Amino acid sequence: MTPYRARLYRVILGLAAVYNLGFGLWAAAWPFAFFDIFVMESPRYPSIWRCLGMVVGLYGLAYGYSALHLDRARPFVVLGLLGKVLGPVGWCLAVRGEEFPLRTFTLILFNDLVWWLPFSLFLLEGTRVGERLRVSAPFACAALNALSALALALILRPGTEVGGDAVARAAYIQEHANVWRAGWGLWIAAALSLCAF
Fold first, then answer.
1. Within 13 A of 157's CA, how many CA atoms are on the CB side?
2. Tell me, what's the pLDDT at 196?
3. Which of 99, 125, 151 is the last residue of a domain?
4. pTM of this prediction?
5. CA 11 to CA 31: how far, in whole Å?
6. Within 10 Å of residue 89's Cβ, how many Cβ atoms?
7. By C-alpha distance, which of 99, 118, 95 is closest to 181?
8. What pLDDT does residue 156 have?
9. How many other C-beta atoms are found inside a 10 Å radius of the C-beta of residue 161?
10. Which regions of the chain are under pLDDT 70?
11. Is the torsion defined by CA of 146, 147, 153, 158 positive or negative?
């Protein structure tokens, strides 16, 4: 691992630590806040949400340790990535069972999905697959940014300032909520690809 990439991984793992510690404290201290933000019925047993906050906070401690000790970080990052893959699976089941509305996708986006790429790259460091990914990064980055630009022109445009008055834009977004989310999801992926590049 080059010193430059080591610094990047330290920053990424440090950010993961700060995010997880912050989210964990927030969920443990204010267990109803998430449900208030997403206009959902408050849980009957807030201690379950508090417990989730404590677990997420513990992940934060592991990421902080990993940022300081990259040579011993692999097991923590493996467990973290596994949790960040299983989190969306649980969320999909909760949405399917109508326990969570689709609009709670933001939770999964920031808690889990944005960490997939940097954690995977860390775990692939020093492997042939990792080397191939580094070589293909400019092409993947260009393709994702081209797709995002296309999505802006074809999908997102009517909901932006270019799309007319505020009422028409709001109506478009409400009528095409899933397409709107997918379009911005592409932009998030494009931004992450720039970071990976």
1. 7
2. 67
3. 125
4. 0.74
5. 29
6. 11
7. 95
8. 84
9. 8
10. 196-197
11. negative
Question: What is the model's pLDDT at position 101?
Answer: 86
- Residue 56 neighbours by CB under 8 Å, 6+ apart: 20, 23, 24, 27, 111
9 and 96 within one domain: yes
pLDDT digits (tens, 9 = 90+) for 59-78: 999 999 999 999 999 999 99
Identify whether 16 is part of a domain.
yes
Cβ 46 vs Cβ 32: under 8 Å:
yes
- DSSP state for residue 38 in the 8-state scheme: T
Q: Which domain holds residue 165?
A: 135-197
**pLDDT, position 32:** 87
Q: 193 with 103, same domain?
A: no
| pLDDT at position 102 | 84
Residues 87 and 42 in one domain: yes
- 139 CB contacts (<8 Å, ≥6 apart)? none
Q: Which residues contact 19 (CB under 8 A, 6 or more apart)?
A: 60, 110
Alpha-carbon span 106 to 33, nearest angstrom: 14
Angle in degrees, CA 24, 28, 32, rounded to 5: 115
Which DSSP letter does residue 160 get? S
Query: Apex CA 50: angle with CA 113 and CA 86, to 5°?
Result: 30
